[in-house]
Amino acid sequence: MSWTTAKDLRAQVQKLWDKGDLLRPLVHGEPFEPRRLRLAGPSSPELTERFDEVRAWMTTLRTTPKVRLALREFRHRVLGQCAVPDEVWLDSLDDALALIGKTREAARFATLVANTQAQNATLLPWLKKRPLLGLEVTDAWARLLAVVTWLQAHPRPGVYLRQVDLPGVDSKFLETYRAVLAELLDLALPPSAIDATANGLSQFCRRYGFKDKPLRVRLRVLDPALRLLHVGTSSGSAAIDRPNLLDQDITLTQADFERLDWPVQRVFMTENEVNFLAFPPVPGSVVIFGAGYGFDALAQATWLQRCPLHYWGDIDTHGLAILDQLRAHFPHAQSLLMDRTTLLAHPDQWGSEPQPVLRDLTRLNAGEAALYNDLRDNRLGKHLRLEQERISFLALQQALRAIACQVSAPADGAPQTTLPDTPPDTLPSAPWQALVCPETGWTHGGTDALGAARFDFSTNSNACGPCPPALAAVQAADATLYPDPAYTALRERLGTFHEVSPGRIVLAGSASEAIFRLTAWAHQQGVRAVHLPQHHYGDYARAAQAWALQRVVDQPSAVAGSLLAQRTLVWACEPSSPLGQAHTGWPSWLTPHTSDKAVSTRTNASAARQPLLVLDRAYAPLRLSGVSSLSDDQRQHVWQLFTPNKALGLAGVRAAYLIAPYAYSERAGGKFYADFQQLERLAPSWPVGAHGVALLQAWTQADTQAWLTGSLHTLRHWKARQIAQLQTLGWIVQPSDANYFCARPPQPIDLAALRQTHGIKLRDATSFGLPGWVRLGVLGPDAQVALAAALQGAHSTCKPTGDFL
User: Fold this and answer.
1) At 82, is the secondary structure helix, strand, or coil?
2) Which among 260, 107, 592 has a CA at the least distance from the CA of 115?
3) 177 falls in which pLDDT band (50, 70, 90)?
4) What are the angstrom distances between the C-alpha of 600 and each of 345, 497, 502?
5) Helices vs. strands in the chain: H and E counts, helices first
6) Which of 359, 279, 356, 295 is nearest to 330 (CA)?
7) Exposed end of the chain (fewer CB within 10 Å): N or C?
């Protein structure tokens, strides 16, 4: 039965009480307007069919106290003239309060209002707004009024809460009623007495001018030369300084920490106390015991903005969220041991994160964001985490030694100092400026001594990665066992995948290792010159330099002409690096217009006089437009180099392979097969580790290729958006068929500042022979938005340095 009962009527009035509507009129003596309550009664058929129930219902309503019934008369076709309840009214506030038993509470509230009117009428609006809360604090109300009145007389008193000396008021009382007091004080005090920038209960003291317990920062000095404490002994004379005091574990107030003026060159931060205490010595550095999600004590220390800051937290969603929050205050902060490589290196130490973070984090770099998304979406395992204290101490030592290599090299002409040979548990104690890595001449995109950039446009890795099937395969690899030294099964899979004989597959530790090994082998074959594209990957030239081979750049006619007097190694890359364009300068016997049949009929004798042509196909899987210059049959007569890690978004897993030309296969026989065996003998044992084997095996799987195909559609969309964005900013963009391209800014930009200030890394193309240009990998929309925002203010005056474009 859905007819309104006396209980229903009381429930309606109770809701009015719960909303404060029955108490508010008491604040200013407002008259109570009669209120109609909702009433649902029997229908016309129910009057006949359930007459006895209707009569009982009407009796109950008539006997309900404090309400007035209005009847509706009508003539029923069976019952004749009838009258039933049609409306229910509350005629007075007293009736409403009595119906729900709240008369006594209302009287207490009325007394509260009267006292407030007499002592501090400015708070009456609060009682009208929060009448029920006013009732809750009735016993404390007189003391609350006293506190408000005292602060009106003593605005921003500059004392501790403990020093407010009022009857019945102590610091515990003020702490207990802090929320209510905040609302009352905001109403009663003038704006000049309120610090509007301080919000929340934790900032109560600052908001109303009380002294607060100072925030404190705990740090350890990692270099004795930076000591803050000068501890000595006294024997009636001045204290004797002891500069060798090593472990200075110091706690400073926030103000003292902000005022520090000392030659700190690097700051580390860790969330784990044991890690903080065990952090090894590092020249010119300190380590701070972290504050979780709170960085208030550090935010105003401007000197922290001037030195590199490395944050070491857990590898889980909360750890990365804390890193993201830290960058709100210190955008240049870099993560330490919070990367995918570290996570995958410690599978036995993985644990479960109780309540993962699910929100998007906008301040992580591409690698961190990809790892965060994988952890948040449980792609690596359900609620996976690696706590920082479970990471091997050796990993920390190695990471710190790597950071030691990030310091800028000395000025031109100054001697360079390499890292001294130190025990593995310490770092050199020489001044940090003297620590530079041995000169390598290498220029690469991606992670550097500053760590992974927040938004790394400098690499050509697939930004949709990592590929889930490939990642799962790498994670499942058994690193406790050697791979098969002959890689029998892997060669079979790769041969089947490419429809070639497994004997034509040559495994390599990486593309670079294959380049150096091929160059060494070519030198053994009598090659004395290397032909390079005009713009090319630097390892081609470095390998040639290692064997003192003549380097000829962008002379296609020479390949088919004078250089044939001496056998030549020819490098081609398509899509090319860094331009992502079609290769030009094919040898005359292998032009894109040469028929497959003409290539196939080359004799071994004629082949012996032709160059060794290597086609680097690192970016062929990432082709977004255009077609290959060579047909499938033409490619069977050149060396082909494959490195799938970038296509799969797993650039850190190093593995590659070559497909030898058909002439070098066992089936073809002859001299070339013997030469091919010599190339195999140049390889070290196990050039590809367990994880590389897993990557290459996954590369051949149908689900991996399906994922790759799907990612290309996304990359095309992202690329079009990224190019349009740069062109809007006045950049000139070179055409490209791949997931990267070269572009030139309208004005010089400071790449180092872009990296330090915004966490954005672009690849200076000067080393490719394109000064003034940068190469940009295609990244997702978040990274593109960050790039556009940063470029608005990145233009500066051109300077003659490699850090500027």
Assistant:
1) strand
2) 107
3) very high
4) 47, 22, 20
5) 32, 24
6) 295
7) N
Q: Is the pLDDT of residue 670 over 90?
A: no
Do strands 550-553 and 740-744 pair parallel, antiparallel, or not at all (unpaired)?
unpaired
367/361 Cα distance (integer angstroms): 13
- Cβ-proximal residues to 547 (8 Å cutoff; 6+ apart), any chain: 519, 520, 523
- Between the CA of residue 29 and those of 98, 113, 395, what are the distances in Å? 19, 10, 74
Q: Is the dihedral of CA 690, 691, 692, 695 positive or negative?
A: positive
Q: What is the mean pLDDT of residues 456-484?
A: 92
For residues 71 and 739, what is the distance between their CA atoms, to the nearest angstrom? 80
pTM of the shown model = 0.47
- E runs forming strands in 384-431: 384-385
Largest CA distance in the chain: 125
User: pLDDT-derived band of residue 290, with 50, 70 and 90 as boundaries?
Assistant: confident
Q: How far apart are CA 180 and CA 134, in angstroms?
A: 9
Binned at pLDDT 50, 70 and 90, residue 350 comes out as: very high
DSSP state of 626: S
What are the residues whose beta carbons fall under 8 Å from the beta carbon of 482, sequence distance 6 or more? Answer: 686, 690
- What single letter denotes the amino acid at residue 450? L
Residue with tokens 């003192």: 548
Sign of the Cα pseudo-torsion (534, 536, 540, 544, in order) = positive
3-state helix, strand, coil in the chain (%, to 5): 45, 15, 45
* Closest by Cα among 367, 304, 340 to 759: 367
Give the residue among 517, 541, 530, 617 at the shortest CA–CA distance from 573: 617
Provide the sign of the torsion angle of the four alpha carbons 644, 647, 648, 654, taken in this order.
Answer: positive
Q: Which candidate, 474, 456, 251, places its Cα nearest to that of 335?
A: 456
φ and ψ at residue 276, rounded to 5 degrees: -60, -45
For the chain, the C-alpha Rg in angstroms (whole number) is 39
379: CB partners within 8 A, 6+ apart: 373, 468, 471
Helix axis angle, 511-524 to 538-546, nearest 10°: 40
Contacts for 268 with CB less than 8 Å, ≥ 6 apart: 222, 279, 282, 285, 286, 287, 288, 309, 310, 311, 312, 336
User: What is the amino acid identity at position 249?
Assistant: D
Under 8 Å between Cβ of 388 and 313: yes
How far is residue 143's CA from residue 173's CA, in Å, rounded to a whole number?
9
Structure tokens at 664: 């070098």
* N residues, the chain: 805
User: pLDDT (tens digit, 9 = 90+) per residue, 769-793?
Assistant: 788 889 999 999 888 988 988 887 6
How far is Cα of residue 202 from the mean position of the Cα atoms in its chain?
A: 28
Angle at 620 between CA 615 and CA 621, to 5 degrees: 140
SS3 551: strand
127-166: b or e for each residue (b if 16 or more CB lie within 10 Å)? bbebbeebbeeeebbebbbbbbbebeeeeebeeebeebee
Q: What tens digit of pLDDT does each residue of 507-525 get?
A: 999 999 999 999 998 888 8
Residues facing residue 83 across a β-bridge: 73
Which H or E run contains 74?
strand 68-76
Q: Are strands 550-553 and 529-532 parallel, antiparallel or unpaired?
A: parallel
Q: What is the DSSP string of 391-404?
A: S-HHHHHHHHHHHG
First to last CA, the chain: 82
Sign of CA dihedral 759, 760, 765, 766: negative
Q: What is the Cα 16 distance to its own chain's centre? A: 49
